[in-house]
Write a structure and sequence with these properties.
- This protein is globular.
- Helix 11 packs parallel to helix 17 and helix 14 runs antiparallel to helix 16.
- It has 2 domains: about 190 residues, MFS general substrate transporter like domains (Growth Hormone, Chain: A, Up-down Bundle), CATH 1.20.1250.20; about 190 residues, Growth Hormone, Chain: A (Up-down Bundle).
- Helix content is about 80%, strand content about 0%.
- The two termini are about 25 Å apart.
- The chain is built from 19 helices and no strands.
């Protein structure tokens, strides 16, 4: 009787662990949106900061670098999160990022501004490294769906964050908009209440070092690195140089800004669909569709003009940006003792490849022009396709409908 009871309890625990916890996934995704709105404040406020502190363009460009440097420590932040508390890192990040980014208008000199942005960069890593681990735990077998909702929060923040920053400064002034940090403080308090009873921690005895995590995960991270490199040229050419390209082609600055907004919002649609589809049809199949479609759409975007170009732009955004939740789901499915460290390694690789490729794309643009750079980037994107077949297959595909109990 006791054995049957224990077996039944174990089965119930496993069933609860495999459930998709909609409310908690949406809560963390919404907090991702709020958090990333703060982290997008720098770019739209940079002209005002340059004017206030009399910065050179080189000094202004270094601000973004300082904010992104902590991403190099992502694997070690992940290891620390596995050993201390994934929940602690996630809960404190919105308040820390919100406070530091809301104070940049008050910075009396360049040094203080650098310090605030460094703190914000560390906080951004504290959130983004362990948060996908929590999403994976809350999503059960539907990790792709969970990652899609989570990434949608970030994509929407990138699209709406600059508007929020400009709106806040318009209302309160550069040195007076700091009270907006209250939203980040409230988000942290809400996360604490919402997740205080959610078991997310990893046993310290099971947590692996960064080196051990790399050895365990390199069968997955190596082909993902190749895919990130191939996709990186397409991604960088669109996210960094799309407004410049449209301005060169049309002479219309408003149209250039609209194009970037359309690209980001079409990416939200792609992100929302890619994860659930990968749960149903398999991670490799969805990555294959994305990496087949993105080069074609990017080529057509550069080739066409008029309304046909903007239709191609929508599909380019949907395909290029849709790969991230699928790759995050793959990493969490195959992470062993240190899921946060595994995600930290993936995010560090993504950061390094993206940062380096942006420079190469800019060099290509100077050398042959942006239009030809888009053609070259679309060709390079195709080179990532063979590496998809080096990825592991889904271990637990999700059936279209729940199986009926025996006898029904």
């Amino acid at each position: 009787m006791t054995m049957n009871h224990d077996t039944s309890k174990t089965s119930q625990d496993q069933s609860r662990a495999s459930e998709y916890k909609t409310g908690l996934v949406l809560a963390l995704s919404f907090t991702h949106f709020l958090h990333d709105i703060y982290s997008s404040f720098l770019a739209p406020l940079l002209p005002l900061l340059i004017n206030k502190l009399s910065m050179s363009l080189s000094e202004a460009g270094f601000l973004s670098t300082v904010m992104q440097v902590p991403a190099l420590m992502n694997p070690y932040i992940g290891t620390l999160a596995d050993r201390i508390s994934v929940r602690l890192f996630i809960v404190m990040a919105p308040a820390l990022t919100g406070a530091s980014m809301s104070l940049i208008g008050l910075a009396p000199n360049y040094g203080v501004l650098l310090l605030l942005l460094l703190v914000a960069g560390i906080s951004v890593s504290l959130f983004h490294v362990p948060a996908p681990v929590m999403i994976a735990r809350l999503s059960g077998q539907k990790k792709g769906k969970g990652m899609s909702f989570f990434m949608t929060g970030g994509e929407l923040a990138r699209a709406l964050g600059p508007l929020a920053a400009v709106g806040a400064v318009s209302l309160f002034g550069l040195e007076g908009f700091y009270p907006v940090m209250v939203v980040g403080l409230a988000a942290s308090a809400w996360l604490y209440v919402k997740f205080r009873d959610v078991p997310i921690t990893v046993e310290a005895s099971q947590a692996a070092s960064v080196g051990e995590t790399w050895r365990d995960m390199r069968f997955l991270l190596l082909p993902l690195t190749a895919i990130l490199l191939a996709r990186g040229f397409m991604h960088a050419s669109m996210t960094a140089f799309l407004p410049t390209f449209i301005k060169e082609e049309t002479g219309n600055l408003w149209l250039a800004g609209t194009a970037l907004t359309l690209f980001e919002f079409s990416g939200v649609v792609g992100v929302l669909g890619a994860g659930p589809f990968s749960d149903r049809f398999g991670r490799r199949k969805i990555l294959l569709v994305s990496l087949l479609g993105a080069p074609v759409m990017l080529f057509l975007f550069a080739w066409f003009g008029g309304w046909a170009r903007f239709i191609a732009l929508l599909f380019t955004g949907m395909t290029i940006l849709s790969t991230t939740p699928v790759m995050l789901a793959l990493v969490q499915e195959h992470a062993k003792g240190s899921p946060s460290a595994a995600n930290g390694l993936f995010m560090m690789i993504s950061f390094v490849t993206r940062s380096g490729i942006v420079v190469l794309v800019g060099f290509l643009g100077d050398l042959v022009g942006l239009k030809d750079t888009y053609f070259i980037s679309s060709f390079l994107g195709i080179l990532g396709i063979p590496f998809i077949f080096m990825l592991p297959r889904n271990q637990h595909p999700i059936p279209p409908h729940p199986a009926a109990p025996p006898g029904q």
